[in-house]
Design brief:
Blueprint (H helix, E strand, L loop, with lengths): L19 H10 L3 E5 L3 H10 L3 E4 L3 H4 L11 H14 L4 E5 L9 H15 L3 E3 L5 H11 L4 E6 L18 H16 L4 E5 L3 H8 L6 E4 L7 E4 L1 H5 L16 H17 L14 H12 L1 H7 L3
Parallel strand pairs: 1-2, 1-8, 2-3, 3-4, 4-5, 5-6, 6-7, 7-8
Bound molecules: 3-methyl-2-oxobutanoic acid (KIV).
């Protein structure tokens, strides 16, 4: 865990909202970009307060929120509901909606129309889609429709089964060359940033010179322009097993279990609620109510129907 937690020095309401051009400036000036996922209103409030730059409503929600064993089952409705909840909690970070599996592959029209839903119904500023190859055309179409697109290469969880599972990518010269080709193609069609997931640090390093757009890494080494982690992984909310690239900064699950156990214990030993958790009634009102309860007619009227 991080030894020195730092609270951002600029209060949330004085921060300037992050835009796509601001991310380009950050790359230019070498200022690291901090990105994290969020899936609901409370986590959105937390990431806002912590001062992150980019919030991704990731399709990892399928796994860390909904309990599936892959990201593919989640659909547009669930993603848009979550993105809209996150929108209500964030003001400063750039909000990116992750296009779920099945929402953009079929055609450019499908991709544009679902990207528009993220913008219109959830207030996202941008969308993310996975892979190079056929996704390059989809990215170009969405960019031309006026919506900023973030690419995602390396380990692309939506197609993990065709990659042989949740495995690092680019570990052979051939795979690394494919990764380079996909990345450059996504950059050439106008993606404003690209996520590199589970890529050897040396491969990232070798590619960085050719990339004009910010690269955000997750298990891609220190050479990228920024880093992204899944909220539940970095805070220790979800499960014991995390990928190699995760550093845990908190044990929120442990805190939640201990808080709930303390609550259960207090209820069972009648220590909760205490006086300060109860409401009062004017003594005269209470007296009148008692008189009402004492009336013989009350008992009779209860059976009168
Ligand atoms: O869905 C997600 O959370 C992601 C990040 C891991 C980049 O795509």
């Amino acid at each position: 865990m991080s030894p020195e937690p730092k609270v951002p020095s600029t209060p949330p309401d004085e921060r300037t909202p992050i835009t796509v051009p601001r991310l380009a400036e950050m790359k230019e000036s070498g200022e690291p970009i901090v990105m994290v996922t969020a899936y609901d209103y409370p986590s959105a409030l937390v990431v806002e307060e912590a001062g992150v730059d980019v919030v991704l409503v990731g399709d990892t929600a399928a796994m860390v929120v909904l309990g599936h064993d892959s990201t593919t089952p989640i659909g547009m409705d669930e993603m848009v509901t979550m993105a809209a909840a996150v929108r209500r909690g964030v003001r400063t970070p750039l909000l990116v909606g992750d296009m779920p599996f099945g929402s953009y592959e079929a055609s450019n029209e499908q991709a544009i129309s679902n990207a528009q839903i993220f913008v219109k119904e959830a207030g996202c500023a941008a969308v993310k889609l996975e892979r190079g190859g056929p996704s390059v055309d989809r990215a170009r179409a969405i960019v031309r429709a006026g919506i900023p697109v973030m690419g995602h290469v390396g380990l692309t969880p939506q197609t993990a089964s065709s990659l042989g599972g949740f495995k690092a990518q680019g570990r052979t010269a051939e795979q690394a060359a494919k990764l380079a080709e996909d990345t450059l193609a996504l950059q050439s069609v106008g993606c404003f940033a690209i996520v590199f997931e589970a890529v050897p640090a040396a491969v990232t390093d070798a590619l960085m010179d050719q990339l004009e757009v910010p690269v955000i890494g997750i298990g891609a080494g220190p050479a990228t322009d920024g880093q992204v982690l899944v909220f539940h992984d970095l805070l220790g909310i979800y499960g014991e097993q995390v990928p190699r690239f995760v550093r845990r900064y908190a044990d929120v699950r442990g805190e939640m279990v201990s808080g709930l156990s303390a609550y259960a214990d207090d209820v069972r030993h009648r220590r909760f609620p205490a006086d300060e958790h109860t409401y009062s009634i004017d003594p005269a009102e209470l007296e009148e109510f008692r008189r009402y309860l004492d009336q013989d007619s009350l008992a009779a009227s209860a059976w009168d129907w």
